[in-house]
Design goal:
The strands form three sheets. This protein has a six-stranded antiparallel barrel. The protein has a six-stranded antiparallel beta barrel with strand order 8-9-10-13-12-11. The chain has a two-stranded antiparallel ribbon with strand order 1-2. It is elongated. Strand 3 and strand 4 form a beta hairpin. Helix 4 runs antiparallel to helix 5. The N and C termini lie far apart (198 Å). It is an alpha+beta fold and 347 residues long. The longest helix has 41 residues.
Length: 347
Amino acid sequence: MVAFRNTDTSGRTTGLLLRCVLYSLVALALIIVDKRYDHLGRIRRMLSIVAYPVQIAVASPFEGWDWFRESVSSRGALRADKAKLEAELRLAQFRLQRYEALEAESQRLRALRNSTAGLTNRFVIGDVMDVDLDAFRERVLVDKGAQDGVFVGQAVLDAGGVFGQVARVGQLTAEVILVSDATHAIPVQINRNGLRTIAVGTGDMGRLKLPYLSTSADVVVGDLLVTSGLGGGFPAGYPVGTVAEVKRDPAQSLADVDVKPAAALDRSRELMFVWLKPQATTPVPAAAATSATSATSAAPAASAGHVAPMPAPAQSQSAAAMPTKTPPPAKNPPPAKTPPPAGANDE
């Protein structure tokens, strides 16, 4: 117990252990009282106000040193930081542009998908690989071919409407002729009144022509042209373009009608190859089929300058197909007796 004993000037020994235990009990009592009754909170707040200048004084040298280092930074370090920030900004802008491009592509693909709802049975989306545009040809090369089921004459659409038609097919690629090509024509009808005609290309991607409308045709600026579905190449009801200008010359029998294409012929990146749904066919009666066959066989003979007689089997089949009531056979009257020639009785 030597370590806990001390000798003062008077020679009396003091118990250090006793004082340590006493101070520990006092501290524990103060902690319990402060925890339960919070009597020392005001004292602590007053002491924190007194100690705040001391804290500021202790932290001021370190803060002052940091400020001094930032103030006296070299120009080279500032340039390096500036170049680093500029590189990060360029990278962030590039990523943002890529996100915008992906968003625009997603919107175009959704528009393509929605435009084929209920009209097609199957579709394939391809990307434009090459563009061949000149005064005589307007065609694009797409990365879909025979292995994807693409065939010559297939309809090609974009998000706006009819884009063109497949002109040539390879194993991996396909060549699509635009509707604005000078050699392309498509059957259309005016959506407002159902008037049918043919739209032909002009060699200009921003203009089509309706060369077969008379000056009295009911067509006005703003009329929407849609595919008529005739010929089976394009699905009916797809937008082809909008009438942009109508010129009528009294001296001419045909009107001059310009059409603005609905498809973005100069901007589309994604194209859709569509397969039409098979049309439901109604069964043809046997009598109608036989009559059609007879008419077909009689047509060449009529064109040769004479009319071919109707074949007997076809007539019997037609008569059998028609349920007509036949009248009962009439009784033949007895033959009239002829008078004998003159002079017969004399002999």
